[in-house]
Structure formats: C-alpha cells, structure tokens
Amino acid sequence: MAEHREFFSRRLHSLLGVIPIGVFLVQHLVVNHFAVYGEESFNKAAGFMAGLPFVIVLEIFVIYLPILFHAVLGVYIVFVAKNNTRKYGYFRNWMFYLQRFTGIITLVFIAWHVWETRIQIGLGNEELNYSLMEGILTNPIMFWFYLIGVLSTVFHFANGLWSFMVSWGITQSPKSQKIATNATVLVFLVVSYIGVRTLIQFAYGV
Amino acid sequence: MAEQSTITFIITRQDNPESAPYEETFHVPYRKNMNVISGLMEIRQNPVNAKGEKTAPVYWDMSCLEEVCGACSMVINGTARQSCATLVDQLEQPIRLEPMSTFPVVRDLIVDRERMFDALKQVKAWIPIDGTYDLGPGPRMPEKKRQWAYELSKCMSCGVCLEACPNVNDKSNFIGPAALSQARLFNAHPTGEMNASERLNGLMEDGGIDGCSNAQNCVQVCPKGIPLTTSIAAMNRATNIQAFKNFFGSDNAH
C-alpha cells in the first residue's frame, strides 16, 4: 500500500464521498425534513440526533474527518484539471466540470453552514432549534445562498455516486453507465426535493 | 465548390522546442477531395505565406496516410484528430492547424509523444516470452475473444485521447487513457494473463489509473473507436481487487 499512495488516496476519496459523507448527507436532509411536519417535530428529531451517545466521537469520525480529507484532496483534484468543455462539449465532460465547480461551492457553503450552526451552538451562542434555522432562512439572501448550497451539494453527491460506481468497477459497460446516469438523476431530484422543501418551510413557514 | 480556387490555412508554428509559437497564414490551391496533409504538401512545394513572403516549409509528422500509424495527429479547428483522415471539404475555413498541446513541440506541428511510450512501459504493455529455452506454443485464444481483443489492439498511440483528456496536462502526472486500455488488452491475452498482476501494479503506480476522473472525452475522440472508458472501468475493478490481494495477501496475488 505504501508504494501505491496516490492510488490509495484517490480510492479512499471516492469511498468517503459515499460512505460516510453521502449517507450522512441523506440522513441530515431527511431528519431536517421533520421541520415540514412542524416546529415540535423538528425540535424533537434534532434533539434526538444531538443527544446521541458519544455524539462528538460520531461527528468526528463520521462527519468531520471524512469531509476534511475529501475536501483537501478534492481541492487538489480541482487544481490539477484543465477543463476543456468549450472544445469538447460532451455530456460527461460537462458533468466532470460541474463536479469540480459544485465541489468548490459546496465547500464554501458547508464551511459557512457549520460556522453558523454547529460552531455557534458549540460555543453556546445559539441553541439548536427550529427558530435558529428560521432566523437564518427568513433572510432572502441566506435563503438563496442555502438553496444554491443544497442543490450544489446534492448534485455533487449524485454525480459523485455515478463516478464512484465507475471508479470501483461496478458499472463497466456503456449501457450500465447509462442506466447509472438515469438512476443518479433520479437521486438528485429526490434528495433535492427533500432538502429544498425543508428550506421553504423554514423560510416561508409553508 | 467550383469557384473556390484556394483554401486558407492558419498554422501555429514554432521554430524549435524553446522558441515562442507564432501564427502564419497560407493560401493553397484547392483540389477535389483534399485532406489536410495534401494541403500541407502544397505548402511544402511552395513555402510562401499569405503576405507573399518566402518562408520555411511547415514541418509535420506522418507515415502511413491511412489512419493506422498515429503519427499525424494535430489539433484541427480546435479538436485533435488525424490530419490524413480529415478532409478539407468537411472543414470550416480558414482551417486552423495547431500542434497537440499535451506534448512538447519539436518543430511546427511535430510533437514528441515519448510520454505515451513511457506510459506503456509503466503498465508493461507487452507479453514477455523471451527465455533461455523454447517455451513451446502458448495457450490458444478463443476466436470470439480474439475479435474482441482486436478492437483494443487498434490503438496506434496517436495521442488524441490524451489531448482531449482534461486530467492530462502539465499540472498532473496522469499517463492518460491509451495505456490503461493496453493493460487490459495484454491482461486478456492467454499468455499475457500470466503476468496480469504486474500490469495491474503498474496501473496503481503514481500517475496511473487513479488519475482518471471519468470525463470520458477519450472514448468520444478516439479515431479507432476503442472502448476506452469500458477498459478503464474494467481496470478499475481489477486494480481494486489486486490492491486488496496485495494488502491482505492472497494465493492469487501473483
């Protein structure tokens, strides 16, 4: 393994994007969707998640460290690509470009989002409840920032799922890759709905 | 096309590997069914640019003139392809010719594709059969498999897939799609199979298969229609399995 470090890091990068980060993303958006069922539902669900045993250990090993690794290597991967969609405007080349573009947007969004919620809660400046998110998202600028952030994150996840399946040799033939494309479009639409619906609930109360 | 008596080429030229590139325009008499190379041959016969100045003839690489050798690749109107197989009648004018940007320029349109041959060495894209005694005939290959492998063997190291790949550039060490597919070809061969793990380990070295991020331009531009992305996905699976065997140890790790 030592002599194949680059190979190992890239495979780990691909794996971490799906397990645990992708799983966490879907879980996070689904649990937040409780907001649509009312303030009390959300507070109960968020309180349950925040009150899990060993929550800080879970956060470090399931969320923080994997995202940190994925982000650092990801920025490097963005840096070494020379995008050429203008000359070679094929569908997959555009997805390649958008994967890098959404990766950077997602990184900015997540940094802001973590600062504004988890870190402020950790510092004792804010409390984890419905009104925290309501306060943030009723500001129209923040609503649009969150909308773009959530869509970008979900796109990066769905398209990353597609290339995960190629990188791990699950989808090899053109036909299987085509089916995977359709399936990941579906993943994008469904997970985006779950997330965006919650944002609308916080912002407009409907 | 009867009235069109001349065609215009705008060629990116470079006098030597160190000097700065510059553009030069040429007008060439039109003939029916010209390919790009026949236009370049006209310039060589009469090396006078559009301003009427005598200039050095344009240098380019070529050999077979039937899209088999891979030598005459260049960027024609923005996309990399074989200049022998590119017909003037199918191109927009003026016709812009540039050397492929992924490779170091030797002179004018000639590039040095040595990195492709280094990549073939990295993945050991050959079948070692030399020994001190006669090893006898190798195992036979089923005809259907031979036909399938023939498609992969069409690779002529022309470099068009490297030119189109966004991950092959001077910031990255990625060896490019061509060699990854060649590893698959030789691993599929009944004799080559005996050294399969050596090629897979070559693919796992720095700059190897992990450099692919699935932009899939390669399969779109390959002049020989090689299923490069299928090869890459197949080698992804094979290298992952090999990596587990290497790490945990296996009777089949050889």
Automatic annotation (TrEMBL), chain A:
Its main location: membrane. It is found in: Membrane. GO terms for cellular component: membrane. Heme binds at residues 28, 70, 113, 156. It comes from the Bacteria. InterPro entries: Cytochrome_b-558 (IPR011138), SQR/QFR_C/D (IPR034804), Succ_DH_cyt_b558_Firmicute (IPR016002), SuccDH_FuR_B_TM-su (IPR000701). GO terms for molecular function: metal ion binding. The keyword Metal-binding applies. Keywords: Heme, Iron, Membrane, Metal-binding, Transmembrane, Transmembrane helix. The chain crosses the membrane at residues 12-31, 51-81, 93-115, 141-162, 183-204. This is Succinate dehydrogenase.
TrEMBL record, chain B:
Its EC number is 1.3.5.1. It comes from the Bacteria. The keyword Transmembrane helix does not apply. Its cofactor is [3Fe-4S] cluster; [4Fe-4S] cluster; [2Fe-2S] cluster. One of its GO terms (biological process) is respiratory electron transport chain. One of its GO terms (molecular function) is 4 iron, 4 sulfur cluster binding. SUPFAM superfamilies: 2Fe-2S ferredoxin-like (SSF54292), alpha-helical ferredoxin (SSF46548). The keyword Oxidoreductase applies. Keywords: 2Fe-2S, 3Fe-4S, 4Fe-4S, Iron, Iron-sulfur, Metal-binding, Oxidoreductase, Tricarboxylic acid cycle. Residues 146-174 form the 4Fe-4S ferredoxin-type domain. Gene3D superfamilies: 3.10.20.30, Alpha-helical ferredoxin. Belongs to the succinate dehydrogenase/fumarate reductase iron-sulfur protein family. This is succinate dehydrogenase. It comes from Virgibacillus profundi. The lineage of its organism: Bacteria, Bacillati, Bacillota, Bacilli, Bacillales.
